[in-house]
Amino acid sequence: MQGRELPEWKQAWIDRNNRQSAANIQQMNATAAAQRQARAQQFAHDQAVRQLMHEQFLATMQRGTDMSMARAAQVANSNHTMASDWMDYALDQRTVLDPNTG
Predict the structure, then answer these.
(1) In whole angstroms, what separates CA 42 from the centre of its chain?
(2) Cα(80)–Cα(91) distance, integer angstroms
């Protein structure tokens, strides 16, 4: 061979390197696409969990507000009844009967 270049061998080597590079690039692209898909699925799952937690938080806040409002109404009604009873007592009017004696 004595240092001569063989164009066929050189072209075969270049073709082989091009095929390997293309296969490696294709594999990297497939891996990257799979990673993107996995990240997108994880993000969607995380968002759904965050939304559920938000809705549970709002439901808890609403329940607390409803309970507070109900208790405030109960206290107000009790105060109004008590004030009315005191007024009736002060004016010597009987609006409440003893359930035992009528």
Answers:
(1) 13
(2) 16
What the block records as the tokens of 11 is 């072209």
42-101 pLDDT per residue, tens? 999 999 999 999 999 999 999 999 999 999 998 887 777 777 777 777 777 766 666 777
Tokens of 16: 């082989």
Whether pTM > 0.70 for this model: the answer is no
Report in angstroms the alpha-carbon separations of 54 from 35, 40, 67, 69.
28, 21, 20, 22
Alpha carbon distance 29, 25 (integer Å): 6
**Locate tokens 């009844």: which residue?**
81
Domain ranges for the chain: 7-75
Compute the distance between CA of residue 74 and CA of residue 81 in angstroms, rounded to an integer.
10
